[in-house]
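Lab meeting, item 3. Inverse folding demo.
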């Protein structure tokens, strides 16, 4: 994610992302958000929901790492209860339908043995939608 959007998220949710101040041996948020700009709104919505729940319950959740893994979002957070874990799981699920580059509706695709979520415009030539791949193997 670009530095401008990264700083906007850090500034908007200083408590949730306080780990960015810690050594990267303890917390990986110092590396920022290891995913494309297209998921900015998704991450902002998730952080808003987590922060609202934290304020209501007195929890103090700590984001540990946010990245793309196997094509979709992973949002790892410590000191989370089941509700926060469910919010993360729902956002991770939604990321499979949001282009990681631009935020438009997208699909999970295979490309060069990797998985990525992209819209039709950002789909690399030769990629194919994972759910539509005929089982040729
Ligand atoms: Zn796109």
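The presenter then showed the designed sequence:
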């Amino acid at each position: 994610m670009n530095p401008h959007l990264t700083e906007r998220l850090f500034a908007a949710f200083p408590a949730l992302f306080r780990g960015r101040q810690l050594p990267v041996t303890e917390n990986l948020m110092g590396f920022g958000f290891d995913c494309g700009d297209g998921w900015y709104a998704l991450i902002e919505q998730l952080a808003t929901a987590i922060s609202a729940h934290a304020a209501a319950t007195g929890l103090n959740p700590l984001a540990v790492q946010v990245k793309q893994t196997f094509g979709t979002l992973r949002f790892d957070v410590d000191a989370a209860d089941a509700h926060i874990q469910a919010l993360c799981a729902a956002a991770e699920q939604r990321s499979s339908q949001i282009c990681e580059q631009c935020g438009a509706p997208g699909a999970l695709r295979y490309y060069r043995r990797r998985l990525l979520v992209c819209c039709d415009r950002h789909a690399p030539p030769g990629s194919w939608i994972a759910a539509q791949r005929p089982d040729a193997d």
